[in-house]
Each structure stands twice: as C-alpha cells, then as structure tokens.
Design a protein that fits this description.
1 helix; elongated; single chain; mainly alpha
Amino acid sequence: MSLFDDDRPKKPIAHEIGSDLALLSVDELKARIALLQAEITRLEEEATRKASGRIAAENLFRS
C-alpha cells in the first residue's frame, strides 16, 4: 500500500446481497435502496426488451 493511496477518490460502495446492515446509517440505507431500485428497473427493462425480441422471432417462424 502506497503512502498516496488516501488521495485517490473512493469508489462508491455497491450493495452486496446479504451483507450486514447494522453499521449503516439511515442515509446509507436509503442510498442503497435507491441503487437497488434503479437496478431492478434496469433489469425489468432488459427482460421486457428480450421478451419482445423473442415474441417477434416466434411470430416470424410461425408464419
């Protein structure tokens, strides 16, 4: 570890499923909730996109 490691900006902490929440503040918990909600939205949008692509492919081969 270098003497200058403390000067680098810290990477935002991602939530790890199952991690201990006892040491987190209310603000940190709310930030993690927002992070997870954004990720859920991203996953749902991708699932919808893939499902519509699959339906289009199925309709193409049914013709």
